[in-house]
Amino acid sequence: MKKSILLAVIGMTLLSSCTKQVSLKEKMDTKAQELTEMAELGTVEYTITKIVKAEDIAWYKIGDRKILFSCKAVLKAGIDLSEFSSQNVEIDEETKSIKVTLPPAKLLSLNMPPEETKLAYQKVSILRDDFSAEERAKLLKQGEEAIIAEVPKLGILKESEKNASDFFKAMLSQMGFSTIKIEFK
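The structure corresponding to this sequence follows.
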């Protein structure tokens, strides 16, 4: 029994000594290629509600029209990894330190599901026509554009960069790096 355990330990030692040591640089080059193939790293998702309202009062028409929608929008932000390459990485093998420069976070997608868009209020005078489907679609498009314009104020991009930084630090730590610095362009 002791001989078989001893032989197993010797065999494992011989096998492990025969395997090629992969440098941190080679590991990172491989990981960089895998990451660029991933294309996008979504690091945060927000669901927000937007109120879209319109009031159509024309001096040359009798009466007015008002409409109010309540819309839910799902925003996903993250890093576009197609812009990332091993050239964005600086490695010091001796100190096991690495500096990674990532593209800035950006809005990756905005989805306003039609089933989450509700007509909350509508008032149309007797002498006026209802809002057409085209007019409603334009109003919702304006709401979507307003959401996109508000993205920097929401803090979603800062949170996305923080989460991306945390992700990369954890991944690089597991790869054997002890000093890790993450920057954004």
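Residues 1-20 have pLDDT under 50 and may be disordered.
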